[in-house]
Amino acid sequence: MAQSRRRRLVFFLVGALVLATLLYWQRGAIALRLVENGVDRITANADPIAALPDGLHVGICGAGSPMTDAHRAGPCTAVIAGSRMFVFDVGSGAAARLLRMELNPAQIEAVFLTHYHSDHIDGLGELLMQRWVGAAATQPPRVFGPTGLDSVVNGFREAYRLDQSYRTQHHGEQLVPPSGFGADPREFDIESPSGRRILIDEDSLQIVAFAVDHGPVAPAVGYRIRYKDRTVVISGDTRRSKDVEREAKNADLLLHEALSMKLVQILENGFDRHGRSRYAQIMRDIRNYHSSPEDAASVAEAASVKRLVLHHIVPPLPLEALKPEFVGNAPTIFSGPIDVARDGDWYSLPAGGDSIIVSRRP
Ligand SMILES: [Zn+2]
Ligand SMILES: [Zn+2]
After folding, report:
1. Among 20-34, 41-55, 181-195, 292-306, where is mean pLDDT lowest?
2. What is the DSSP-derived secondary structure letter of residue 214?
3. CB-neighbour burial class of residue 115 (10 A; exposed 0-12, middle 13-18, buried 19+)
4. Ligand 2 centre and the CA of 202: distance in Å?
5. Assigned CATH topology for domain 54-118+191-360
6. Domain map (residue ranges) of the chain
7. Disulfide check for 195: which of 15, 32, 211, 325 has CB 3.0–4.6 Å away?
8. What is the band of 1 on the pLDDT scale with cuts at 50, 70, 90?
9. pTM
10. Ramachandran assignment for 172, one of left (phi > 0), alpha (psi -120 to 50 degrees), beta (any other)
11. 233 or 3, greater pLDDT
């Protein structure tokens, strides 16, 4: 009996070894097949938005900050309202992340910037190039932002001008029309504090910018997006702010920036221990113009939002186990669900209902 069991085990092990050898030997062919399947799926779908139900959809194309985080590109939020796609802030790596989420940059109608700290704009050139080449557009996309926008957009346009000439020469004006290159800046001024400005106001869609408190960085704004009966608010970079609270009143989803004072303090202590006083000072400085997860939770609670998504995560969270440490006491302050965003997180808010469906795109 024991002998036949041993024989079966030997057969199994030899079989597994033969299979593993075959797979290893064929690994190139298998990888190519997987690539073909993936390419098929992506290239067949020029209009990924069409498959979505009517409503607001929010995709995290960058949940991070200036500090490198393997799970989080620089700040970026994709918002799909009905059949229209908008992007709010474009940090480093955000354009690549949008593509990985199988969204089509050619479909971006407009970009909205909250302020001009580099982490919120340094993916803009890449995104504009992706859209231009992908869309064969004859008009560039509108880029909205508070005072200072024109110089930012003109700077990117200048930096990419040579590349524009190469691509038009190489692919021809029909494929990449020069008139569609760059961006159409829509700079607006806004009073600080408590100023607000309606930027888009149509039948079913309203997008409002509102001043937030990120001093000495000014102007700095957040955005409120309403589509039919659903509302999403993006805080932008801010200390705990009454303005965010006012705009988020009864919103379905509040995306709020968050910095863990406790974890940043650990970084500061480390720099101090090793005599790196400049970095230690920066860790001290950044704590005074951001919000803690507890601040974000108290804003969400006061505004009675349905769900709170923490993004612009500082510092990076290399371990899942750090999440409870990061959120700290926030769950005792806000009675609704709280998420610590990661790139690829996806929220669907169907019109005419009050559900929030949470999922992930690759
Ligand atoms: Zn900032
Ligand atoms: Zn920032």
Report:
1. 41-55
2. B
3. buried
4. 30
5. Metallo-beta-lactamase; Chain A (3.60.15)
6. 1-44, 54-118+191-360
7. 211
8. low
9. 0.91
10. left
11. 233
Please work out, in degrees rounded to the nearest 5, the angle formed at the alpha carbon of residue 61 by the alpha carbons of 84 and 233: 65
The rounded Å distance from CA 64 to ligand 1 centre is 12
CA 30 to CA 41: how far, in whole Å? 17
Of 359, 311, 301, 307, give the one whose Cα is nearest residue 338: 307
> What is the share, in percent, of the chain residues with pLDDT greater than 70?
99
196 forms bridges with which residues in the sheet? 210
CA of 343 to the centre of ligand 2 (A): 16
Alpha-carbon distances of 342 from 21, 61, 74, 233, 356, rounded to whole Å: 37, 9, 11, 18, 17
Q: In the annotation, is 119 catalytic?
A: yes
Does pLDDT of 96 surpass 90? Answer: yes
Statement: residue 45 has pLDDT above 80: no
Which of 69, 119, 213, 343 is labelled catalytic?
Answer: 119
Report the 10 Å Cβ neighbour count for 331.
16
> Angle CA(30)–CA(32)–CA(36) in degrees, nearest 5?
115
Contacts of 2 (CB under 8 A, 6+ apart): none
Residue 140: cis peptide before it, omega within 30 degrees of 0: no
Confidence of residue 308 (pLDDT cuts 50, 70, 90): very high
Neighbours of ion ligand 2 (CB under 5 A): 117, 119, 237
